[in-house]
Design goal:
CATH superfamily of the largest domain: D-amino Acid Aminotransferase, subunit A, domain 2
Bound molecules: N-(5'-phosphopyridoxyl)-D-alanine
Radius of gyration: 19 Å
Number of strands: 15
Number of helices: 8
Structural class: alpha+beta
Number of domains: 2
Helix content: 25-40%
Shape: globular
CATH architecture of the largest domain: Alpha-Beta Barrel
CATH topology of the largest domain: D-amino Acid Aminotransferase, Chain A, domain 2
């Protein structure tokens, strides 16, 4: 089955999908995106992802590219045409195409919309979760509004590469005070030796994950205590368990930070319970494929 992308009003073969060279996303990183999990042929938490898309767009004063109901149709249709039952939907909205100038285009242009879908190997991710992953910590050198899900991800790109170069899977950022902010494309969590789940409260220093929001509900349903407070790199290294959360990985155990084993050095029981219960709490939409 060949892949299809949605690009500005048309479904096109993936290999032929193109945007204009003066798309402001391409030249200026002037746009936002969302990544939504597709599981068993249905969207996971679509409503929350689209709500966040709306918030990101209004923060940048970009219009929704089309009414919400049409957008939801396009997302479904892209999944349907790709016949992906387990994977990811990527959607990107930029301010549109205009002559390069930092200020917003003087004559309004239509926001540009691109949607792609990709299959994920669930078995591979499950194997990764059974083993757990390692992360390194790095100074958080991103801009001050990472609560907006913008496509400007250069520090995240460099952090992920630094992790790879160091033989680790991912990177966690730490602020000036040594407090973990979040991962390069995920939120960061620890379980203290007292069994309390810690994650950093929402602010402009983190992207509030949809997965994070659902995990808080999962924890409540499992009667696991959650405290929203920032924790230091040292606290993380001394924790009983650690994990990261994102739409692509849901709950992914972290078993080493900067080469220091966390807890037993294996995925922890609280982490695994949260992972196992996650999709019972998430909003699963109607089956598309
Ligand atoms: N990233 N923090 C950052 C910096 C992220 O890029 C992401 C997600 C998250 C978690 O958000 P959510 O739970 O809504 O996926 C936190 C996506 C998956 C990506 O860039 O591929």
């Amino acid at each position: 089955m060949s892949r299809v992308a949605y690009v500005n009003g048309r479904y096109v073969p993936f290999a032929e999908a193109r945007v204009h060279i003066e798309d402001r996303g391409y030249q200026l990183g002037d746009g936002v995106y969302e990544v939504c999990e597709i599981r068993d042929g249905a969207f996971v938490d679509e409503r929350r992802h689209l709500d966040r898309l709306g918030r990101s767009l209004s923060a940048l004063r970009i219009e929704m590219p089309m009414p919400l109901s049409s957008l939801r149709y396009v997302l479904r249709e892209t999944v349907r045409r790709n016949r992906v039952t387990d994977g990811l939907l990527y959607l990107q909205v930029t301010r549109g195409v205009a002559r390069r100038d930092h200020g917003f285009p003087e004559t309004p242009v239509k926001p540009a919309l691109v949607v792609t879908v990709r299959a994920l190997d669930r078995k591979k991710i499950a194997a990764s979760a059974r083993a757990g992953i390692s992360v390194i910590t790095l100074p958080d050198d991103r801009w001050g509004r990472v609560d907006i899900k913008t496509i400007g991800l250069l520090p995240n790109v460099l952090a992920r590469q630094a992790a790879k170069d160091a033989g680790a899977k991912d990177a966690w950022f730490a602020d000036e005070e040594g407090l973990i902010t979040e991962g390069a494309s995920s939120n960061a969590w620890i379980v203290t030796r007292e069994g309390v789940l810690l994650t950093r409260p929402s602010s402009n220093r983190i992207l509030t994950g949809i997965t994070l929001t659902v995990i808080k509900e999962v924890a409540a349903s499992l009667q696991i205590k959650v405290e929203e407070r920032a924790f230091t790199v040292a606290e993380a290294k001394a924790a009983a368990e650690a994990f990261l959360s994102s739409a692509t990985q849901t709950v992914m155990p972290v078993v080493a930070i900067d080469g220091i084993p966390i807890g037993s050095g294996e995925p922890g029981p609280v982490t695994l319970r949260l992972r196992e219960a996650f999709h019972r709490q998430a909003e699963i939409g109607p089956r598309i494929v």
